[in-house]
Specification:
The structure is a single chain. By secondary structure, the chain is mainly β. The protein has strands at 2-10, 17-29, 38-48, 51-61, 64-75, 78-91, 103-119, 123-138, 148-150. It has a 9-stranded antiparallel beta sheet with strand order 1-2-3-4-5-6-7-8-9, with no helix packed on it. The termini are far apart.
Amino acid sequence: GEARIDVHMTGPPAAPAISGSLEIFTAILLPRDADKPIYVPQGVFAFFPDGISIRDLLIQVDDAVARVEGVIAMRGLTPGDLDLTIVGDLPAAVLQVPLREQVSTAVGAFGLDLRVTGTASDPHPTGVIRPRNVEIVPRAEPGLRVRVTLPLSHA
């Protein structure tokens, strides 16, 4: 990828004071156990001693794009309080990364309009998640087939 970084660190290694910025122009991430790369075509991170500001961060998987903005409070190198907004689309296939033992296949997308507060270890999302032609196939015992389609139709 391509990025510009201007970061200054002072203080002890266990509790550094970080200031500066990271501007992403293009980046490609492939999380462990993920089938598809995550494209980050742009984003700006501003670092200050007690937090990180995120602006114009675009996250793209396949044709789905979501924008992330907000602030993450930091205690040294440990994330603390969150105040983030996430708007856009997220492919259902991303469920296969954290739920790889439970989800065999996931297709479709989720429309997101979320605010995430709380902490990094206990996030509190509020807002709307709209499933768009989402189909999830859970991992099952051999011979057992289960398929969940969202939105659920009422007969």
